[in-house]
UniProtKB/TrEMBL annotation:
Keywords: 2Fe-2S, FAD, Flavoprotein, Iron, Iron-sulfur, Metal-binding, Oxidoreductase. This is Oxidoreductase FAD-binding subunit. It comes from Caballeronia fortuita. PANTHER family: NADH OXIDOREDUCTASE HCR. In the N-terminal section; belongs to the FAD-binding oxidoreductase type 6 family. Residues 29-132 form the FAD-binding FR-type domain. GO terms for molecular function: 2 iron, 2 sulfur cluster binding; metal ion binding; oxidoreductase activity. It holds the Pfam family NAD_binding_1. Residues 285-369 form the 2Fe-2S ferredoxin-type domain. Gene3D superfamilies: 3.10.20.30, Nucleotide-binding domain of ferredoxin-NADP reductase (FNR) module (3.40.50.80), Translation factors (2.40.30.10).
Length: 369
């Protein structure tokens, strides 16, 4: 039987309540215990971990968002962001798909230690790299390596909802054996004529029978596969070098940058918040924590997060560069100079939220902590 196209043109992806009905809201600054339900290998160095909340309630999130996982590794508390690779249409299990990083603390700990039945604290979904904010009838998903995870959640959600959305998914990998979710994507593309799949591998690895593209993504290759790529809403996720190359390629190809969205997993590639934002002549401010009644003093040149840590106050954080949003906290009184890298929305700033990792005080502060 030929695959039948969906009849739903309606943009239910942007009506998040479609899958949120009944699901529990999990704020990004709320820590809760997650129980590992399943562990599955995706490739030789990528593994998916599926979690259930302690109360087994469905979780509310948007496709493309991440959670912040916390673990005690060698006596140190470590926190890292991981995109939810599962779709919000399957809210009972939240999956993260993790690539081992050579010498990396958390990724190796998860691979080597985390097994079904174990529990881990995590902070709720966060992030703005989501198809629900910039949905379009025609999308181009561009990913490399583990950057495939947010785009996989978006693809799964779109197909689960039966959306008549034209998705072109172009994924770059080192070898065919490194293509994460390869079998599932191929199965989905067979069933869904509006999902088109293109893989490009730098080398064939141990798969001499590979007939797909070999090399790197280029403008010539992209134009041949998708002559209409410049008209698509583009979502990109991958290593910093890959994203720089992709942006340049799209620019050359006449793609409108306003229709370009990207997520970086590479914290080091983000511009660090400038330390000289405030000309502090060693000015000292007092920070009061409203809920715990703790108080500490700090200099105007430090970030609030760094000063809190020095004062022994534990605040959830991950990137320390204003990217991930894990340390988002309400400022109840006072004002700060915040230089973030996309980890907070204007709407949240208007509501008094600040990222403590990239905020320096300009007065005494009261925080909702
Ligand atoms: C929004 C977001 C979403 C993400 N989603 C995913 C995802 O879906 N899947 C995924 O796999 N990853 C994802 N990441 C990346 C993830 O958060 C981690 O950065 C990654 O797993 C590496 O963490 P780690 O603790 O293993 O490595 P780290 O310990 O942080 O080390 C990273 C690198 O630094 C090097 N290093 C560490 N310490 C030192 C030192 N003292 N001196 C010199 N070098 C050092 C290590 O060798 C390694 O190369 C995401 C990141 C962000 C920001």
């Amino acid at each position: 039987m030929n695959a039948v196209e969906s009849i739903f043109d309606e943009d239910i992806l942007s009506r998040a309540e479609t899958w949120e009905r009944g699901a529990r809201s999990w704020p990004s600054n709320e820590r809760q215990l997650m129980t590992c339900a399943r562990v599955a290998d995706e490739t030789h160095d990528v593994r998916t971990f599926e979690f259930r909340t302690q109360d087994a309630m469905p979780v509310r999130f948007e496709p493309g968002q991440f959670i912040t996982v916390s673990a005690e590794v060698a006596g140190q508390r470590v926190e890292r962001c991981y995109t939810i690779s599962s779709p919000p249409t399957r809210p009972y299990l939240v999956a993260i798909t993790v690539k081992r990083v050579t010498g990396g603390v958390m990724s190796n700990w998860l691979h080597d230690t985390l097994r079904p039945g174990m529990t881990l604290p995590a902070y709720g979904p966060s992030g703005m790299f989501t198809a629900t904010r910039a949905s379009a009838a025609k999308s181009l998903y561009l990913s490399a390596g583990s950057g495939i995870t947010p785009l996989m959640s978006m693809t799964r959600a779109s197909l689960d909802l039966g959306l008549n959305r034209d998705i072109a998914f172009v994924h770059s990998a080192r070898t065919p054996g490194d293509i994460v979710f390869r079998d599932e994507l191929q199965r989905l593309a067979l069933r869904s004529p509006r999902l088109r799949l293109f893989f490009v591998c730098e080398g064939i690895g141990d798969e001499p029978e590979w007939t797909g593209a070999v090399g790197r993504l280029s403008l010539a290759r992209l134009s041949a596969w998708l002559p209409d790529f410049a008209l698509r809403e583009v979502f990109t996720c991958g290593p910093a070098g890959y994203m720089t190359a992709v942006r340049e390629l799209l620019r050359e190809g006449g793609h409108d940058p306003a229709r370009y969205h990207q997520e970086s997993f590479d914290i080091a590639s983000a511009t660090p918040p400038p330390a000289d934002a405030i000309d502090s002549t060693q000015q000292t401010f007092t920070v009061k924590l409203a809920r715990s009644s703790k108080t500490f003093t700090m200099s105007a040149s430090e970030t609030v997060l760094a000063a809190a840590r020095k004062a022994g106050v534990a605040i959830a954080s991950s990137c320390a560069q204003g990217v991930c949003g894990t340390c988002k906290t309400k400022l109840l009184d006072g004002c700060v100079e915040m230089k973030h890298n996309g980890g907070i929305r204007e709407r949240e700033v208007q509501k008094g939220m600040r990222l403590l990792c990239c905020s320096r005080p300009a007065s005494d502060l009261v925080l909702d902590l």
